[in-house]
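Quick one:
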Amino acid sequence: MSGGILLPLRRLMRLGRDSQGAVAVEFAFIAPILILMYFAIAEFTDGMIAKRRVSHVASTIADLTSRVSQVNTADTSDIFAVGRTVITPLPTTSLRMRLSSVTANSGGTSHIDWSDANNWTPYAVGATVTPPAAVISANQSIVMAEVQYTYNSPVRYLLPNGILLTQTYYLRPRISNMVVHN
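Output:
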């Protein structure tokens, strides 16, 4: 009879020492965390790429505008088309761009000479703006390019409302003292 009791006890002890299924159980605990980390890193990377593209759009449209002495509405439309191309393959529906010429008077107050926008409201001529002091001095003019973009996550569960990315870029005109809008 004692042999009958020892047999199940031996099997139970052997089962306690058996580690064949331990790896599968550990993987089952760790896999969801690893998968979540993978998606978080991918999402963070996509957001950083979007931020970099927004910055590139702002610098590109400012650069194109500062390379000429005068622009018209058709020119700025073409410049905005370049901006939409730069941000691709991201969707362009939430992309907002604004170009403005800013001049500081002798007292250092900066005002808008002209402004044109795409999917946004342009500034009123004569409106006062405050660029950083290191960017513009009295009696100088600069080109100000502003870009806003709402980054929407492909996985809406993580970021249901999106993140607003903004960038403002300032450049001095290269050919003349001021870029004129006709």
